[in-house]
Amino acid sequence: MALHSSAAPEPTGSESAPARAADQERPPAGGSASGALLVAAAAILWGTTGTSQALAPPGASSLAVGTARIAIGGLALLAYAAWRSGPKALRALFGRWPLALAGIAGVTGYQLLFFSAVRTTGVALGTLVTLGSSPILVGLLGYALRERLTAAWGGATAIIVTGLALLLLPATAQVRWDGVLTALGAAASYAVYTVVSRALLMRGLSGDAIIGVLFGGAVVPLGIAASGADFGWLAHPSGLAVAAWLGLAATAFPYWLWIKGLSRVPVSVAGTMALAEPVTATLLGVLLLGESLTVVAAAGVCLVVLGLLAMGRVSG
After folding, report:
1. Would the pLDDT of 264 be above 50?
2. Residue ranges per domain, the chain?
3. DSSP labels for 54-76?
4. Distance CA 288, CA 300 (A)
5. What are the subcellular locations of this protein (predicted)?
6. pLDDT by residue (tens digit) across 73-112?
7. What pTM was estimated for this model as a whole?
8. DSSP letters along 238-296, please?
9. Contact, 25 vs 205, CB < 8 A?
């Protein structure tokens, strides 16, 4: 999405930057191509999550795997933020505690609602509703940052959403509307923590501290939600390997890339570029798990890639 506004400040981690002056800053006109590529790289790593879960030992529930993922990844991000930015940058987040709490709630809500959605209405439809509606919700919430949606952003997003529909429709079973509503809740949660992260960046806070606090903070509510889950699978070497990959390679590192990219592009562009995730998941399913790819689904992959290229031109 091309946005007609002045550049947002680079995150400094400084507590002393005047809030009023920072609040007057606006996101960059279209962002940078490098920022879009950083978000896309993060999405590709996120796309390994489903295949990694499929390789987990028997008895590893979605909630337990998701909690382990955020526990390892969130604490790693928090430790990195403390080392890289220092206590002062972390304390600055507490000065923006309403936004920080909203971001933590968004991270927590996405994990809980997304896993519940795919359990209720199936992986295909749950993923389609979540990922297909998230860029729309991100774009709408972007108005809070004074971003303006354009026809170019809308066209690129429409191509990607159409591709996702073709990609997932052949595998879609009967619709469970409670699952659809839960998936919409997951998309809204994603939009919340995306927009909150961008808002905190615009106020001059450290990107490392933001992502560390949001994901590190989500460990507590997720741990409470999964208190009755079985974590015995972590005793197996393969279970530890899966948890380590999910926490570090599919969470900590890609979210570090994501927050760096988010400092360079509008939230609407970031939300749409992140749709590279289902393409990666589909290709890995075909190549590593032996899943079939129909002609219609292949056409969907091509459309998503085309839409991502279009979005890259918007952000450049």
Report:
1. yes
2. 29-315
3. HTSPTT--HHHHHHHHHHHHHHH
4. 20
5. Membrane
6. 999 999 988 888 888 888 888 788 889 999 999 999 988 8
7. 0.72
8. HHHHHHHIIIIIIIIHHHHHHHHHHTTS-HHHHHHHTTHHHHHHHHHHHHHS-----HH
9. no
